[in-house]
Every structure is written in structure tokens, then in C-alpha cells.
Amino acid sequence: MLQSAVSNQEIAQELVFLEHQISLLQLEASMLVAELDSSGFLEDAGYNSPTDWLRFNCHLTDKVAGDRIQVGEHLAEMPMSVDYMRDGQIGYSHISVMARTAEAVGKSFDERKLLGLALDLTPGKFYYKSLHYRHSVDPKAYAEEQSEQAINHHLSLSMGEDGHLLINGVLDPVGGAAVRSALEPLAQKSGAHDDRMLPQRYADALVELASAGKPATLQVTASIETLKGLAGAAAGEMEFSLPISSTAIQRMACDCSVTRVLLSQESLVIDVGRSKRVIGGAIRKALAMRDGHCRWPGCERPASRCDGHHLTHWIEGGPTDLNNLVLLCRRHHRMVHEGGWQVIKYEDGQISTIAPTVTFGLPRGPD
Ligand SMILES: [Zn+2]
Ligand SMILES: [Zn+2]
User: Fold this and answer.
1) Residue 255 Cα, ligand 2 centroid: separation in angstroms?
2) Do residues 198 and 232 both lie within one domain?
3) Is the predicted pLDDT of residue 147 greater than 50, yes or no?
4) Which ligand is nearest to the CA of 250?
């Protein structure tokens, strides 16, 4: 094949060349935008703003249209940077960071202060450094910009028809960093076996963050029948949620971090407001000491982020003592109760798990 005669090295060179050409074209486009803008054409064309004209006629996103305008407008303030770009030493993305910095700091802009950084850094890192520069030039304006972002932050929570909670929002940089630093450690993979993608791990981390270490924050109402998972039992109820399955109730009750209101069949309240954990102080400590971390094979979540799981549920008469308990992290605890996995503990304390799809032996034939 003809293709195989072309080495990867040549393809890579071609790619770098192409991207450089794209940078040059973007620069040229920015110059044309500046020309149209200064002539008043974009303003008079009947659109709300020059950005809108570009969005509609050139099929650009808001951000890219903004880049074109800013670069076009500030090109004269960064002649050296443009030369370096034409030479292929930096790209259009560097130039757009320069332009936005020029826009932000106004008269104090000095491209020489930034050019060295642009030459050394990728555009993403360069943008980050450019913020430091902006702060050094005008800390007051920078602080005003940040507090404006803080005012504009918002979070909306809405429940989807299927009971899922939809979260949508924007946080200011400082608040966002606080949330990230709380979520990141919880969103780490729990071991080599952990095949969740990052968005799923963030979701689990958020739930874990919200529920960790708080013994009695959720009020669940369920009947004994629901708790036992008997056929015909109604679902349980929890504030802010659609009715929840008996398996989820069983998990929560397993190492109770919920306030329970158990109803007997005649709807008589038989156990109200028990906010103590089923697995209390001394046993919990001994359990944490013995297991150290989640006992799921390969999982290393520390004890502080685990539930105590009753191998035989207390509702089925299983005792709350060390022999009947193992530490499981929230995710693995959920896999057992809601996911149908089985945890087997051997005489020597070894733990193994059985996936819900595994069946033993052949189906039994007719007798
Ligand atoms: Zn459990
Ligand atoms: Zn685990």
C-alpha cells in the first residue's frame, strides 16, 4: 500500500505543519474581523453584537468568536508575539491569551512580560500564568472580576421523572476549587479493579461527601415487610426522593446511618427516630481495626469511608458482632445490596465475591 511508505515521523511533521497553517489562517481571520469591526460593518449588520455576527455567519462558538475579536483588536500591541507565531514558535491559542490579557489590563499591557512564558508553556499553562500577570498589574480589577464571578454563581437541583437528581450550576473559582479539593480524593480509583470512568467516580464522590460521617441525616420510612424485601411490600420513603427500593433500604439499615421510622403492617409506628448506628462505638472501632479498609478483593478504601456490612442482615436475625460484619466501601456495599453480588467469608477470614450472573451447577432436570 502506498500509505505504508509514509512514516509516522512524516505524518507528525505534516500535522505540525498543518496546525501552523491553521494558526496563520486564524490570525488572518482576526485581522479581517478587526477591519470589518472598525469600519462599523459588524455593528450595522443588524446583529446584537459583532460576536453574534460571527457566530451566525462563520459558525463559531461564543468563545472562538470572542477570540477573533480580541486578537483583531489588540494585534498592534503584540507585534513581537505575532512574529514568533508566524515563525511557528507559538500558536494562535497563545496569541488569543495575550489578546485577552491586553483587554483585561488595558494600558499597562506589555507583551515582553508575557512572551517568554508563551514560548515556554503550552497554551493552557500560559493562560494560567497570564492570570498571575493580570493580578500583578492590577490586583483591584482582578479581585473585582473574581467577586463578580462569585455573585454570578448558581446551582440548580431538579428531579427527573425517574427520580434522578439533575445538577447544573457554575461556581466561582474559589468556591469551585474548594469543591474540587473535597471531591478529588474521594474520586480516586479504589484499586486496580475499579473500572468506573471519572464522571461516575465524581458522582459517587459527591454522594459520599454528602453522607460521610453523618450518622443521622436521612429519614427513611419503611415497613418491616419492605425491610425484609417481602413480595408485595410497598417501597420505602425518604425525604427528597421518589419511593426507594427495599434493597436500598436494606443497605441503609445494614449499617444504619439513617433515622428509621418502621411501620408495622397496621401502619403503627414501632421504632421512631433511632439515630444511633446499628453498629455502635466499640464494635465499630474493633471492626475498623480488624479490617482496616474495604474488604472487597482489591479495594483499598479506608475504614473511615466504609460501612459495616452484616453478612446475615440483622433483620434476618444476623447478630451485630465481628463474626457477622465486614467493612465495605459505599460503592461495594451498594453492589451487594442493590447489585445482587454475594460476599462470602471463609473460616480463615478470607473474603471472596460472587457476581450476580454466576450460577453453579447445571439446571436441574425433571425428577
Ligand atoms: Zn450491608
Ligand atoms: Zn470497596
Assistant:
1) 15
2) no
3) yes
4) 1
Q: How far is the CA of 189 from the centre of ligand 2 (A)?
A: 10
Shared-domain flag, residues 302 and 220:
yes
**Cα 161 to averaged position of ligand 1 atoms, centre (Å):** 28
DSSP state of 186: H
In terms of domains, do 224 and 203 share one? no
253: CA distance to ligand 1 center in Å? Answer: 8
Coil vs helix vs strand at 20: helix
DSSP 236: B
Is residue 364's pLDDT more than 70?
no
194 and 215 in a single domain? The answer is no
Q: Is it the case that residue 358 has pLDDT exceeding 70?
A: no
Centre of ligand 1 from the C-alpha of residue 224, in Å: 17
Residue 237 CA to ligand 2 centre (angstroms): 27
List of residues 6+ apart from 305 with CB closer than 8 A:
186, 208, 212, 329, 330
Q: What is the pLDDT of residues 298-329, one digit of tens each?
A: 888 888 888 899 999 887 888 888 899 999 98
Q: What is the count of structural domains for the chain? A: 3
Tens digit of each residue's pLDDT (9 = 90 or more) over 101-142: 999 999 989 999 999 999 999 999 999 889 889 888 888 888
Domain boundary among the residues 106, 131, 149 is at: 149
Same domain for 162 and 255, yes or no, is no
Quickly tell me which residue has 488595558 as its cell. Answer: 106
Same structural domain for residues 197 and 216?
no
Give the whole-angstrom CA distance, residue 299 versus residue 131: 40
Supply the range of the domain harboring residue 87: 11-149
- Are 162 and 294 contained in the same domain? no
Distance 192 CA to ligand 1 centre (A): 23
The number of the ligand nearest the C-alpha atom of 249 reads 1
Whole-model pTM? 0.56
